[in-house]
Amino acid sequence: MTFMNPDRAAVIRQLVNPRSVAVIGASADFSKVNGRPLKHLIDKGYGGEILPVNPKYREIAGLACYPDIASLPRAADLAIIALPAALVCDCIRQLGRKGIRAAVIFSSGFGEMGPDGKALEQELADTAKAARVILLGPNCLGFINAFENVYATFSQYADGDTGAGPVAFVTQSGAFGTAIAALARRRGLGLGYFVNTGNQADLDFAELMMAVVEDPRVKVAAGYLEGISDGEALVKLAQKCRALGKPLILTKVGRMESGARAAASHTGALAVSDAVFDAVARQYGILRARNEEQMLDMMEVFCQARRAGGNGLGIATQSGGAGVMMADRAEEVGLAVPHLGTQTQAKLASVMPAFGAAGNPVDVTGQFVARPELLSESVVAMLDDPAIDVAIVWLQLMTGYVDALLKIFAEIRDHTEKPFLVCWVAAPEAAAKGLGALGIPVFSAGERAVEAAAALARYGQSERKADAGPAKSRLSPPVPKAPSGVQPTVEASALLAAAGIPMANVALAGDEDAAVALWRGNGGAVALKVESPDILHKSDMGGIILGVDSEAAIREGYRTLVSRAKENMPKARLSGILVQEMSQGHVELVVGVSRDPVFGMIVMVGLGGVLVEVLKDVTFRKAPFDRHEAALMLSELRMGAILDGVRGKPAVDRDEIADLLAKLSQWADAMAPRLLELDLNPVLVGKSGPRVVDCVMILNDAPPEASSR
Prior knowledge:
Pfam families: ATP-grasp_5, CoA_binding_2, Ligase_CoA_2, Succ_CoA_lig
Organism: Martelella radicis
CATH class of the largest domain: Alpha Beta
Shape: flat
Region (Disordered): 465-484
CATH architecture of the largest domain: 3-Layer(aba) Sandwich
GO biological process, one term: tricarboxylic acid cycle
Helix content: 25-40%
Family: In the N-terminal section; belongs to the acetate CoA ligase alpha subunit family.
Radius of gyration: 31 Å
CATH superfamily of the largest domain: Succinyl-CoA synthetase domains
């Protein structure tokens, strides 16, 4: 019998929400890995059909057990495979013949076991593709769909209460993912989905999350990553989550540099995997958590429906010191702690005790115990202030006043539409549970509450960004027919100038007379530079002479640079000497493009010129992007204040720099078939705008489809 290959997305949805489950290798011993899924499906009340398969049994727990896959009365929506690794490929072939299109593979002994295991895993992937079976795993814990009581797992997490909640959690780690799930349960955060991807021989993190996040019962997507192989899939997932209005929270470990490879350009040397991931996360609205506790904090704050309209934080405390500490942390994580308006201060003054503080932070003191309206009216007044977008209420202990405080917090919630968080240090258990029932996030430490508020603000900023997704480049530059490697400066500059990048005029002189003629044609002082495909960073070997403005100086400079090249790099191929117009600018930037193995073309901007690799004040974005995103890049530079003028230097036009970056990103996206690396360093910026005075462009071999265009 032949089967049409169904739509992959539909099969994935069928996998996570099956109407029938076959357990291949099922055991009557419910303590074993191959018995635990049966136990959970039965005990947790799965409403679909359960089909155990094992020739050793005629029935298990009252369920008919079938001797082999061919004997099943019908094709199940999902197969759980709990067999030795050597038997799995043949099992997949049998599933394909039966018409079962989705499988979860618990079995270990594949890619995690070294070269032989990797070969077996590749055979498994090829077998599944031929059989038209979609795989979760191998070497995975499986998954839980708590909404429908689907327990395709042997995880310890399934042993306890797994009540459905608004969070979909997908993890690449089984053991650590289980620990995170257990911590979420302890906090009262319900996981509607718990999915472990295992070795990802077929289905990967992004595809699985894409399927479960579409469930309308899911409000928050959270994931634990140990590596990413498909950056485009992650970007599409982020765009999907933003379109659905569901925050995507990720913890990614592995902050090692991918720059161990030799990098010819500054951009390539600085573009390390973790920095690029961070930048792409910001670009597409992904919220990155440093660790599992911060992930859970973010889950908690986003499980409540209210969102922050800006980054203004209001703080109300019964301790002035706690208020100062939280205000300090707020500034560090990008929140503003604004002055309250005149009307707000007047409202606060009318209810505050004389020894309280009506500023921001608002110190309500301990008097609210005797006068509950003091806390509720103060916080409501603060949240009514136009400059405040989210608030934190800090208190400690108050064991004897839990009921009264819960009533106050309920009143605050009902009298405002803005989000507010509670930081209750050493909170009684009844307080935490009561706030959870009210839908109010509660934290045990001030800095954690501030960081959760910052996540709300960042997500709000992401929602406000134009979200058509970065359009593909409108540019269609001709793919260069030049050979791979470092490109001649004149030709590279012409390509960039055609894309609207402001390049300093430059020409190549093959001898002294040609250099003199080019100088005369320029009509003013010029820079002389060595041109060689083997000398990428000219300043490192004295290959630049600036401000040359006479025939004698041109001739002497030409001879000097040729001599320096031969002395310092005798094997370098010398093409001649570049003659370039002098450019002015009191700010030096480095701009570049590198090809990231996961996310593709990445644009960098930074401050520092020749010191860029020392200062490392750089930021990245995935190409292409618009001027608004480019402006955000500039705002992330630690020394970005230099752009606005310091120590008597005038400000430069950020918009013109943003325009350069946006145009470069469009060009880089269009040039993706051939562009390997690009360094524009330095880019001088002055009153006339940015001007690129040096570039290193490296092309790779053109793919067949590119060379034929």
